[in-house]
Sequence to fold (430 residues):
Amino acid sequence: MKTMRGALTAVLLALSWAAASPATTFYSAATSAINDDYYGWSTKNFSLLAGEYAQTLEDRCASRGDQCDFDTARGVVKDLLTAFGDAHLTLRDAQGAQRLREIAQDLAVPRTGLQVVRAEGGLLIGSVMPGSPAALAGVRRLDLLTQVAGQDAGKRGGQNSPIGPSEFVNMERLGQPISVVLRRAGQPDQPLSLSTAQLKARDEPSLTWSGPDGKTAVIIYPSFLPSDSAAQFLKLVQYAQTQEARALIVDLRFNSGGSLSQCVAAASVFGPVVYDTEFKVGGYNYTGLLGQPSGFLETLNAPASARVWKSPAAVLVGSDTASCAEVFSFYAQKAGVKVIGLPTRGVGNSGVIFHDLPDGGVLAVTVLRAFTRDGQPLPNHVTPDIAAPTDLDLLMKQGRDQPLDTALTVLGQGILPPSATVPPNDTAVK
Fold:
């Protein structure tokens, strides 16, 4: 590590000799944070790469000197992170960092109530906040927004269109109506004007019912970021039990992660969880028992039968399932829960902390590696027990949610009748 630190110091000195600019300040802050704290699975020489990309930055800034801007450095750092090969090392711009702070502080902000992700042909709606303007306008989970504010949304031909989730959030912040075009199976494309209201910045888990007899509880779990997301999940699971649910489906297809303590606690509704981690110095154990955070010894000594949910269960995952959501899926799968969908993104065996950057954004730096109880590295992604893609063509033409139908069949609950579309919007349980 002394050699790497020395090499990076030389890079930073070289940058300081160049004309000081916002770009060099940004690059120095980002590379210093990685050098100081990184402890992930990449085996590449970061200091060597940082030197190479410092030259790239110098070349791009050559004609602008001390006027070279943050955006130029941000592009170079993104290329550096790609070359380094740790997908958990990511940049968020100032708006993305602001949303993290709003969630952490449990603030209310202008929102339509939608959580959206990029998909081919538009923005796919992952969740709709109960009682929100979007819900009142009749927007449903798994609808597709093909256009937003007159521009193509999502992806087109595999390439990102102008409007993605971040751009949609930025439009919501203005507090003005947002014009969209909504696509749903069996209906012509529908122009809508979505208003906003002061709503929680955070996305919370919610529950709906599915299956031919309406007795399968489906919990939509959009994020583990809220500090009480495990407690909310436990409440929904217990509510489903009071309503005599026959089976449980947890939808994590659009959950990109959050707090390790929360996802470990939540996963322990299916059985005790001990998540072993290793840092540069020492290690730490995240533990959960009966759906709540737990002391290490209590969890370690708990019988495998100590579980809240004992009936059939399944977890839905996909390529947008990442980080902490992968941890939840891994431990649910170990407890015998069927995982259905597509392989997850592939960063579930590490964890990050956030570093502030000079432009107001943040850098997620990988600081821990994850292991099983017998000391084996956790797999970087979760492989489903049963493959079932979220087929947009099937969804938009027939209203069929293939992963949900597959889960219902696997759990012995049958599937929805052909006339049914995807389940309606979620309901909150307070």
User: Anything to note?
Assistant: The chain has three domains: 2-92, 108-200, 206-346+381-410. The chain has 13 helices and 22 strands. The domain at 206-346+381-410 is CATH 3.90.226.10 (2-enoyl-CoA Hydratase; Chain A, domain 1). The longest strand covers residues 362-371.
